[in-house]
Input
Amino acid sequence: MLIIVLGVSMIPVVGIVGGIGSGKSAAALAMQALGGHLIVADALGHEALRQPEIRDQLVKRWGPGILNAAGEADRRRIGHIVFADERELHALEALVFPFIDLRIREEIELANAGTTAKFVILDAAILFETGWDRHCSKVVFIDSPRKLRLARVAQSRGWDEAELARRESRQLPIAEKQARSNAAIVNTDDFGKLGKAVKDTLVRLQIIC
Output
């Protein structure tokens, strides 16, 4: 039975935003444990780069040096190009964002067609920048102190403060993300507290009972 009507989800869709390193993925997993169908936009970005037609367009623009030994588009090499030149970043976005948006809509439809998901979670760092918030019923902002975020990205990605600032400059200011969200959850690496805050927030937003 088709449950998507004119692209509108019949079950709630919760978007997750926050600063880089805020712990959006941890919050998303806590929501998933409460019955949510999880969509991770970054994973769909990986999937986009595996599409032969997209890969070929990237090679045409930047040359075969962006491919790894297996002939796949290398995200790290591409990252060095696009984060150094805003025009190249826009060129990449023009290729991959339509694919990601299509896959988001497909995943929402899949969740609606099933019988187990109570709601959908859309974990997307650039939810507002891309307009993907149009798919969401509510948006939750994950808040975390900058010092803690820096420690996380230094450990997980090897970034220093300058790199974090450079990456964040490509996104909306954190204050604007929070202002445009329906609720905020503080994440300080205590998963027990995070899980409780996530549940309380979803109840308050009437996503779950």
Remarks:
- The two ends are 25 Å apart (CA to CA).
- Residues 200 and 208 are 9 Å apart (CA to CA).
- Confidence is low (pLDDT under 50) at residues 1-6.
